[in-house]
Structure formats: structure tokens, C-alpha cells
């Protein structure tokens, strides 16, 4: 894995693909700066060596060039504040305007280019466009994990123009190392906690991880497809009736591979999908008609936490209940607590891919787990065992 440690950036221009695709409010202020903060260590390290930095990113889904709503100029003041150095903005990402600024750059300077997606060539992975981008740096650094699963010009194709001069930034390095620590060189036992709404969206992950884990904890809406497949009564719970056979196959495969599958014992059932619903705790396979399971129950919290506490490597993808509603958030919070405790006891814990990341942030577990992935879709594809184009372009 080539990283910025393999290069000396002194007197060199680094062209860094960052992920500054940050949310903005109606006044175009950055409301969550996580991604800018995440890019800082790479930028700092290159500047500290006496290099200069040209940053390129996308922001939102602009319709065309000049779509001001998605201009990266809105990000400049936040980036300046976080990086602690002035960030010069150029209102284009290719062409003479960029050349004029980049050609005069000195060591320690930072330039941010305008939204790459103002050009459809970016997402098309256009070779000519990539070549134009490549003119802005001596060394190409990809630090945009969140878009590494896309074969776009700036994330993948541009690397072709940096033979032996392309590497991963520190964020990419951390993301790749974290997933490797879980799927390639884990300390055992390994537990995967899979939640979320549907089995169908997690099947790729399950198939890829089954031979790498010791315990599989299943929670969330997925539960009921498994319970119904096993002959239980799931009432009005979310259930994929066309995946019952698949659920049985997964259970069978897991058993043959020696993976212990843990399904909820009891659940918190509600009489409607609402925070104002009436609730009751019932056995997971005896949910009355008119009721739906929206969180795990107290016995399950204890049972799942007990497994988690015994494990040395923990992967968490997907909430175990409808955590967006406070009434059904407790199970997910308890899973977070157990993972935090296990981590404190020396386990390695990775939270990745979608809503479990939001849950971890919302409930304040971010600093109590080993690593929270910054890339939803990219992490999901890695968990499914796919090679990301942005990674393959550099390795
Ligand atoms: P996913 O994107 O597949 O990880 O699904 C995440 C979503 O699953 C969250 O928005 C949760 O509210 C939802 N979810 C979790 N548990 C349940 C449940 N028991 N019934 C319905 N939806 C659920």
C-alpha cells in the first residue's frame, strides 16, 4: 500500500482528491465538518514537509457549471479555519484560471479547486479531463474514501498520469487498515452485528464475512424474515416474504461453517410505526397480528451484550431498532454501550456503512469505538468483498 510516507513532498505540489462533500444549510454554511477534519492530517503532513497542496473534490449533485448552490466556495472559510492556513479558491477545476494560480504556488500554500462535478466528464471518468486535472500536481494523493467506490476521473482515472507518483492519504490508509484488521487479520473471536431494515441489502456482506467471523448477531428489521422462515409469528413486522428461503440458507451455511448465529429472544413490539405507539415486550416469534417489532427487548440486550463482551474484534453495520424514534432507540444504544465496553477492554471495533454510523454519532459513541468509517457506500462495498476502483488504481 503506497502512502504519503513513501514520498518526500518538499518543493512538490500534491494534487489531493479529498471528500469535501459536506452538508450546507440554507445560508450555505457547513453544518457538519467531519470530512474536512478527516482530511486535515494528510494536508498537514504534506505542508509540514515543505510541500504545497491543490485540493479537488465534488460537492452535491450540481446540474451544470455555475450551479452556485453546489459551489465549493461555500466551504473555503470552514476549510481555512480547520486547516489553520489560508485556502485560496479557484472558480474552476481545469483551464487557464487554475493554471495561473497553481503555477505560482509556493511551499506551504493551499488551493481549493471548484466542484469537479460541474463537468460531467468527472463522473464519466473521462480520460482527457483526467489528464487536464493531472497537470496540477507532481504527486497524486487519494484521500477521498467516501468516493473510492466510484471510477470517476479524480478518484481513479487520474492516477494513470502519475506512474509511481500516486499514493493514499492518511484517511484512506486508516480506512483500509481498519477493514483489513477486521476481515483479514482479526484477533478472534470475531463478532459481526448486522441490523438495518432488509436482509436483501445485507446479503452481499453476510456472504463475504461468514468465513471470517465466529458470531453473527442479527437485529433490526432483518430479524423478522429469519424468524418467519423458522416458523415464528412476526405479526405486522417488516418481513421479506420472498427471502424466507434465503434466510434459511444463510442459517444453514453459518451452521456448517461453525458460525454461531444469534437472533433476538424478545422484542419491543408497537401497535403502529410511531413514537406514540402503544408497546409491549413479546417473545420474538410470538408477535400478535396488528403489532410490529421495532426494537430488541431487554433479554436480548443482555444476551447480545454478553456475546459482544467476549469478542476481540467487532464489526457493526446497521441499527438493531428504529433508533430514529426515541422509544425504539434503547437496543441500539445498549449495543453501542457493549461495543464501547469491549473496546475499552482491548477489542478492536469498526462501525461502518450507513445508519449505524449516524446512530453512533447521535448517541455519542464516536470516541468509544476503535474506528468509525467515513464512507457509507464505499465501506459497504468493501464489506461485500469488492475491490474499490479508487483503491485498485493505486495499489
Ligand atoms: P439499513 O440502511 O439497511 O442499515 O437500515 C437502516 C434502517 O433500518 C434505519 O432507518 C432503521 O430505522 C431501520 N430499522 C431498524 N430496525 C427496524 C425494524 N425493526 N423495523 C423497521 N425498520 C427498522
What summary fits the major beta sheet? 6 strands, parallel
Going by CATH, what is the homologous superfamily of the largest domain?
Phosphoglycerate kinase, N-terminal domain
Fill in the CATH topology of the largest domain. Answer: Rossmann fold
The average pLDDT is 96
Number of helices: 14
Low-confidence stretches: none
Say which molecules are bound, naming each kind only once.
adenosine monophosphate
Q: Determine the structural class based on helices, strands and strand pairing.
A: alpha/beta
How many β-strand runs?
17
Number of domains: 2
**Inertia-based shape:** elongated
Strand content: 15-25%
CATH architecture of the largest domain: 3-Layer(aba) Sandwich
Radius of gyration: 23 Å
Question: Topology, please?
Answer:
Blueprint: E1 13-17, H1 34-48, E2 52-56, H2 76-83, E3 87-90, H3 96-102, E4 110-113, H4 120-124, H5 127-134, E5 139-142, E6 166-168, H6 170-183, E7 190-194, H7 203-209, E8 215-218, H8 223-229, E9 233-234, H9 244-256, E10 260-262, E11 266-270, E12 279-283, E13 286-287, E14 292-296, H10 298-310, E15 313-317, H11 330-344, E16 348-351, H12 355-362, E17 371-372, H13 376-383, H14 389-392
Parallel strand pairs: 1-2, 1-5, 2-4, 3-4, 5-6, 7-8, 7-15, 8-10, 9-13, 15-16, 16-17
Antiparallel strand pairs: 11-12, 11-14
Helix pairs in contact: 1-2, 8-9, 10-11
